UniProtKB/TrEMBL annotation:
<dbReference type="GO" id="GO:0016787">
    <property type="term" value="F:hydrolase activity"/>
</dbReference>
<dbReference type="InterPro" id="IPR050747">
    <property type="entry name" value="Mitochondrial_chaperone_BCS1"/>
</dbReference>
<dbReference type="GO" id="GO:0005524">
    <property type="term" value="F:ATP binding"/>
</dbReference>
<feature type="domain" description="AAA+ ATPase">
    <location>
        <begin position="241"/>
        <end position="387"/>
    </location>
</feature>
<dbReference type="InterPro" id="IPR025753">
    <property type="entry name" value="AAA_N_dom"/>
</dbReference>
<dbReference type="InterPro" id="IPR003959">
    <property type="entry name" value="ATPase_AAA_core"/>
</dbReference>
<protein>
    <submittedName>
        <fullName>AAA-ATPase</fullName>
    </submittedName>
</protein>
<dbReference type="GO" id="GO:0006950">
    <property type="term" value="P:response to stress"/>
</dbReference>
<dbReference type="InterPro" id="IPR027417">
    <property type="entry name" value="P-loop_NTPase"/>
</dbReference>
<dbReference type="Pfam" id="PF25568">
    <property type="entry name" value="AAA_lid_At3g28540"/>
</dbReference>
<dbReference type="InterPro" id="IPR003960">
    <property type="entry name" value="ATPase_AAA_CS"/>
</dbReference>
<keyword id="KW-0547">Nucleotide-binding</keyword>
<comment type="similarity">
    <text>Belongs to the AAA ATPase family. BCS1 subfamily.</text>
</comment>
<keyword id="KW-0460">Magnesium</keyword>
<keyword id="KW-0378">Hydrolase</keyword>
<dbReference type="InterPro" id="IPR003593">
    <property type="entry name" value="AAA+_ATPase"/>
</dbReference>
<keyword id="KW-0067">ATP-binding</keyword>
Length: 453
């Protein structure tokens, strides 16, 4: 039996002959590939073989979700960030990012964030998923900036289900989480970082405490409710789901307080944009499309440093010489009115939805008429000097009284003297004693009346 086995083993010369033949064939095949088959075709064939064998032996598939997508924030990245921050306390990870930005309460409950380079395990309908957040320097940007992205890894067989079901699940979950969020944020644009910096928004003004004409307040609340429930309506009529408000009136009449009340009522964060800090129209589009839905875009004091309207003056002869042309170019603001209007109601307005845009100004008459056209600022709200009804609301809030002997006298004085709600509030905060405070308010109004006369 052993002898028959050894007789079947090929001789050394046979093995060497086979090896020589295979080597010659390999060299011939390599020559054919390099000299006969074009380089592009050869690379294509090799890549196909490589992909086939790598997918055959590798059972995992990885989704890459970058933070930036086109002109704005990748909403899938945002949804994952919101969703994962809620499941972190329930799972075991190697590290956990915690913190609090509540300045008024150092003992406030900690918030959780997704740590970089830590694996986070999740389960969806029995499928095990692995999340990892990466951060690295973005070398394609002329400014030093971090590029962040998620890796979501699953078994290759579940790839299609994750795409159709799991991503939909985290998107819906993030929407519910944001709708019920406890804290609102206020964002300001940083020209150095070319991005938004956030802080916790803790303004306590609500429509309950806001001193405003009751009829105007109720009208505004009804308008906000109709906007909030109007998704199907805006879609049916073919308009972007947004609403524009112009708050105008003298300084100190409560425009900022009204913005805070709207934010608290709608549970929307605020993006406070200073137009002077924006470089040009392209930058304006980029930063505005990077804002979140269900938020307020606030542009204050539009008359003091708003967009330049010179780009709209196209009636001037091209050949006509303007001796101040160079001076005008040097003084020209960075953002044009056309660039702002394109985002407010142009094609770029369709890039966002469920958005409230609020402009404030002390001098409505100084604004370019193009800004006041219907459809750009849907509702114009005059924030005027203090009236008797506004005064009574302020007294109820600050002094906790609804009637007093001096009320009638003070209300008559408001018909003759112009005083802003801010001035009245300052007088009402002098003392908790209504007699002392209201006497001081009477003296203040009388002095303003004498000054006017």
């Amino acid at each position: 039996m052993a002898s028959s086995f050894f007789t079947k083993i090929p001789s050394l010369s046979t093995i060497f002959s086979i090896y020589t033949s295979l080597s010659a064939f390999t060299i011939l095949l390599k020559t054919i590939l390099h000299e006969i088959i074009p380089t592009k075709v050869r690379d294509f064939v090799i890549s196909k073989f490589t992909n086939y064998f790598s997918s055959y032996f590798n059972s995992d598939f990885t989704f890459i979700i970058e933070e930036q997508w086109d002109y704005g924030t990748n909403q899938t990245f945002r949804a994952a960030q919101v969703y994962l921050s809620t499941i972190l306390p329930k799972i075991s990870t190697g590290s956990l990012l915690v913190g609090s930005s509540n300045l008024k309460n150092p003992m406030a409950e900690l918030k959780f964030g997704v740590p970089v380079n830590s694996k986070i395990m999740d389960e969806f309908e029995g499928i095990l998923l692995e999340w990892t957040l990466f951060s690295e320097e973005d070398n394609n940007n002329y400014r030093s900036k971090q590029k962040r992205y998620f890796h979501l890894t699953c078994k290759n067989e579940f790839k299609d289900k994750i795409m159709t079901d799991y991503f939909t699940y985290i998107a819906k979950s993030s929407v519910k989480i944001l709708e019920n969020k406890e804290n609102l944020n206020i964002y300001s644009y940083s020209p150095d970082d070319q991005g938004w910096e956030s802080a916790i928004f803790q303004h306590h003004t609500t429509f309950e405490t806001l001193a405003m004409e009751p009829e105007l307040k109720n009208k505004l609340i009804r308008d906000l409710d109709a906007f909030s429930n109007g998704k199907d309506f805006f879609k049916t009529v073919g308009r972007a789901w947004k609403r524009g408000y112009l708050l105008y009136g003298p300084p100190g009449t409560g425009k900022s307080s009204l913005v805070a009340a709207i934010a608290n009522y709608m549970n929307y964060s605020i993006y406070d944009l200073q137009m002077q800090s924006v470089e040009d129209d392209a930058t304006l589009r980029k930063i505005l499309t990077s804002t979140e839905n269900r938020s307020i875009l606030l542009i204050e004091d539009l008359d003091c440093g708003g967009a330049d309207s010179s780009s709209r003056n196209d009636n001037k002869d091209e050949g006509e010489y303007d001796e101040n042309q160079d001076k005008k170019k040097k003084k020209q603001p960075k953002v044009t009115l056309a660039g702002l209007l394109n985002f407010v109601d142009g094609l770029w307005s369709s890039c966002v939805e469920e958005r409230i845009i609020i402009f404030t100004t002390n001098h409505k008459e100084k604004l370019d008429p193009a800004l006041l056209r219907p459809g750009r600022m849907d509702v114009h709200i005059l924030m005027d000097y203090c009236t008797p009804s506004v005064f009574k609301k302020l007294a109820a809030v600050y002094l906790e009284i609804e009637e007093h002997d001096l009320f009638e006298r003070i209300e008559k004085m408001f018909l003759e003297v112009k005083a802003t709600p801010a001035e009245v509030t300052e007088q009402l905060m002098v003392s908790k004693n209504p007699d002392v405070t209201l006497k001081g308010l009477v003296e203040f109004l009388e002095s303003k009346k004498m000054t006017k006369e």
